[in-house]
Specification:
Strand content: 5-15%
Shape: globular
Number of domains: 2
Largest sheet: 4 strands, antiparallel
């Protein structure tokens, strides 16, 4: 099995467009959907269909397929891309929230190094912990860079 933070050896299906905002979605694995949805939503998924993740921050939809959408209110966790609160995780596996990252950067700590060490030790589980179903390193890097600009 591939590590969640390593490139996959298989090509994902071409992402479809979100039916609400019409932005291209990113394909996700069924395991992510099953891990993230609250029980009532989980009971109505179509496991035979391919779902995508909508990254548009202003769109209420998180997951979608050709016949169904799931909004933010149907997930067990807040979604980094769709909630700008300071206590929302940027790195779901290791508990790095915006607030914790800001504090670490102010204290000259290296949160990216810590996360990379954990990933290299094969301790991440992004496919079941992160609503986007993929590695968070890009989100963490972008967030830390945004702190440098402010």
């Amino acid at each position: 099995m591939d590590s969640c933070c390593q490139p996959s050896s298989t090509k994902p299906a071409t992402p479809s467009q979100c039916p609400v905002c019409h932005q291209k979605g990113k394909s996700i694995q069924m395991i992510t959907l099953k891990a993230m949805l609250q029980p009532p939503a989980l009971e109505i998924i179509h496991p035979e269909l391919n779902y995508s993740f909508c990254t548009n921050p202003s769109c209420e939809v998180v997951y979608f397929c050709d016949v169904q959408t799931f909004g933010k209110d149907m997930l067990k966790v807040s979604v980094f891309q769709k909630n700008d609160s300071m206590d929302v995780p940027v790195c779901y596996c290791f508990g790095w929230t915006r607030e914790r990252l800001m504090h670490a950067v102010k204290e000259n700590q290296q949160p990216l190094d810590h996360i990379r060490e954990q990933v290299q030790a094969n301790r991440c589980g992004c496919e079941v912990n992160n609503p986007q179903g993929a590695c968070c390193l890009g989100n963490v890097t972008t967030f830390i860079r945004s702190l440098d600009k402010s």
